[in-house]
Structure formats: C-alpha cells, structure tokens
Amino acid sequence: MTVPGPIFTPEVAVTVILILLVPFAVAGISLINAGLGRSRSAAHTMLASLCIFAVAAGVYLVCGFAWQGYIGAPARVIVAAGKEWNWLGRAPFFLRGMDFDGAPISLAACLQIFSVGFAALIPLGGGLERWKLSAACASTALFAGCTYPLFAHWVWGGGWLAQLGVNAGMGHGLVDAGGSGAIQAVGGLTALSIAWILGPRRGKYSLEGMPTAIPGHSAILILSGCFFTLLGWLGLNSAGAILFTGASPTRVLLISINTTLAASTALLTAVCITRFRFGRPDVSISANGWVGGLVASSASCAFVTPFEAIVIGVIAGALVTYSVEWFELHCGVDDPGGAVSVHAMGGIWGLLAVAFFAHFPAPVVNVAAGTLRPDAALDANQWLAQIVGIATLIGFVLPLTYALNLALNRFWPLRVVAEGERQGLDLYELGAGAYPEFVTHTEEFTQLR
Amino acid sequence: MRLAGSLLLLAGWAIVVAAVVLLTPANTRSVFVLAGVTVEVIGLTLLIRSNPLAGREKE
C-alpha cells in the first residue's frame, strides 16, 4: 500500500488560505444589513442571510458549477461568423468526477461556493424588512442556479466575454479579477429587481412621494461588519486574480494594498461629502462608501498601481454617496442596505476602471481567453471589452433577473403581508425578537394584538 | 412602459452582441457597440420612470 504524499504546493496552499477568508465578507455584509435595518427585523435578517447562503451553496452544487464550468472544462459553443463562441458550461452536475486535489478547477469550485453565497446575499440588502424568508430562499435558488452561473461562465469560465480578446481583438477580453461584475454587479442588479418588485417599506414615502428617513438600528453592527468585509475582500480579490486572470501569488501583496487603499479612500470621501453636505459624517453612507470602494477595487486589483487604486476609491466613494440619494429620492427605490448603489453602481464602476487604469504586465492576463496573448499593444481595445461586459449586465442580466423574480412573485408572493411588516419580521416570521430584553415595540404593536 | 423598457434593454444588448460577432472593422464595431449601449440607457430610463414613485417629488 502506498501512502499518497503531500500534493499542496506553496502556491496552492496560499490560494486555499485566501479562499477561506472569503466567508468573512459574507459575515460582514450580513452584519451591515442587520445593522441598517430596524431592530424588529434584525434576527430575521441574520437568519435570512444564513438561509440564503445555504440555499445558494446547495443549488450551486447541484447545477450551478456545471453550468459555470471552468477554463478548459467541457462547454457548449456556438459557431458564428467562423468563430467559436463559448456560452454555457457542460460539466457534470453535483461536482461529479472532480478530484479535490488542489487542481485549479477544484480551487475554483471551492471559491465559487462561497462567492455564489456572497452574491446571493446582496439582494437581501434591497429587500430588508419586507422580503419573506421562504420567498428569499426561492429567489436565491433561481439566482444560484441560473443568473449567477450564466454570467460567471461568460466571464470566468472561458465564455464569450472572456473570449473577446481572442475572437474580436478586444484587449484581453473582459477582465474582472475579483468579481466587480460577476459577483457584485450581478447581485446589485438583482437587488434592484427585488426592490422594484417588493416596493418600498410602509411609511418610507409620503403621499407626495417624499422619502422619510428610516435609520438603521445599530451603528456598531454596521461598522464592525465593515472590518469583516475588508478581510473577506482581501481573500476574494487575491484568490480571484490568481484563479481567473492567471496572476502570480506574489501579486497578493499589491492586491492587498490596492484593496485596502480603495476602501479607505472611498470611506474618507463619503465621510467628507456627508460632513460638508449635512454638517456631520453619516455612519450608514460612510459604511456604504467603504464597501463601495471594496467593490470597485475588485476588477482591477491586480493591474493598477496603489495611486490608481486611490483614485478608483475616491470616485467609488463619491459615486455611492450620491447614488444612494439619487435612487431613493429620484427613482423611488427603497433600498435600506444600499445594495443597488454599493454593489451595482460600484461594480460597474469597477469594470470601467479596468479600461481607464489597468496595465497588463504579463503576456497573458485573462487566462479564460485560453490563448497566450503575446502583445501589449492589444491593450488598446480593452475599454471596448469592458463596455461590452457592462452592456451585458444591464441589457441581459437585469431583464433576466427581473423576469425571473417577477414570475416567482406571481406564484410565490415575495412580500410579507402588511400586518407582518407592522409587527416586524422577527415576531411575525420567527416568533421572537432579536433583543427580547429590550422594548422594541410601541403601542402600535400591542394594539394589533 | 415597464415592458417597453425591458424590451429596449434586450434590444440594446442584441445590437451589442451582433456588433461584436458580425462586424470586423474596429471603428464600425465600436460605433455599433456604443449605439447598443445608448439604446440600453433609454430602456433603463424607461424602466426607472415606470416606477410609480419615481420623480414624484418634482410635482
């Protein structure tokens, strides 16, 4: 009998450690969402976060990874204009046949189990305090089984967006190292769909359409969640860059610095803007700015200098700060967690930032292209690949996720009934509050009983 | 208006995809891609404006 020897190379060990940091981002976003909601729905938000993560992981195991696939794995192709365009993965369901031996495809599967749970969690921020637990789980199943794997295959699985460099001469194809588009923007656009379908919380808008401030219940949860997100994002950006763009593990240092700088400057920008506009810094918008900086840093984290990461962060902070207000005031979108502004707008800006700032030092950057690109001059058309990626998010992913959730809403109403919203989802759906020793309800609730 | 907005989004994306797949000259392709994005922006605007609460503060 032979005992198998160690198979982990140092590169694989580093990648595994980075992947195992990603759940911290999930925990961070959950805490931020819980803090941004009212206390009467806090336990529901945390339980919904766990349930969404669990459903997403399960569904993704069943069929998600099969359809997402990986570079070099079996895929369905369409031949158009004499070129092969890869549009869907064709790996076995249930991860059958995969050896979990540290090969890139097994590492990608592990990373994606966390990533899909993370992406599926984002819409919860847009549906806080009115999204039924069961409906959130059903919607997550559609997300993890359809929307997410499809776009992730196109970007990370060697799909047609990754092939734009080889097939159409557009730079290195769509470059999205840490998931500004594939994770954040897809989740953010789904959050927009959910917020549209659910409608605003009761009392959020006056009869004249003016929004009312409904402050979050715990700044401590929000801000401690921000620290967790940094840790998770360091792993997400680094592991994504190594597995999906072929970055060397030595670039983890640069990626970590860029990620931290983008988040920091985005936070400071949000603090300054709210300080000058409202007279004092706003906690929730500043926290959203921090996460927005992390989101925007993802796509280009391995290919920009620290100074450029600062510029990306400053723009992300300003973008998130103003778009939160724009969506609430001018678009009538009640998004308590800021998911649309932070993840959709920040993610799209992150993809665009690649076009403006990225430098590609290696001959091959987007390994999903499948072919060595020998020439740095190809970078000239990178902007077009990024624009095509953004156009796909807005023109395909948004209608798809909107239609899926609209159809679900017809058979399985997403929104809790009015009485449940008045009681708070903790009592209505779970039967107990998050803070049983505190009085969290006024006579409004006791009169109902 | 909501349906029209969604259809315009899809139409814009179809223009982008057709330009990428069918057109070879870089300039022509870029122009058509940007045209597709413009159609998407119009569709997105329609979709946003179809929300009954959008823009009511101006009335």
Question: Quick recap of the structure?
Answer:
The complex is a heterodimer of chains A (449) and B (59). Chain A has 449 residues and is mainly alpha-helical.
Folded structure, characterized:
The complex is a heterodimer of chains A (449) and B (59). Chain A is mostly helical. Chain A has helices spanning 10-19, 22-36, 42-68, 104-126, 133-156, 164-168, 180-198, 219-244, 252-278, 283-298, 306-329, 339-357, 382-411, 418-423, 425-430, 443-448; strands at 75-80, 83-89. Chain A contains 16 helices and two strands. Chain A has a two-stranded antiparallel sheet with strand order 1-2. Chain A is globular, with a radius of gyration of 21 Å. Chain A starts with 9 loop residues before the first helix and ends with a helix. The model of chain A has no long low-confidence stretch (mean pLDDT 91). Chain B is an all-alpha fold and 59 residues long. Chain B has one domain. Chain B is 76% helix and 0% strand. Chain B is built from two helices and no strands. Chain B has helices at 2-22, 26-49. The chains are: A mainly alpha (449), B mainly alpha (59). The A-B interface holds A 80-81, 83, 85, 164, 168-170, 196, 200, 205, 208-210, 329-333, 381, 384, 387-388, 390-392, 394-396, 398-399, 402-403 and B 6, 9-10, 12-14, 16, 20-22, 26, 29-30, 33-34, 36-37, 40, 43-44, 48, 51-57, 59.
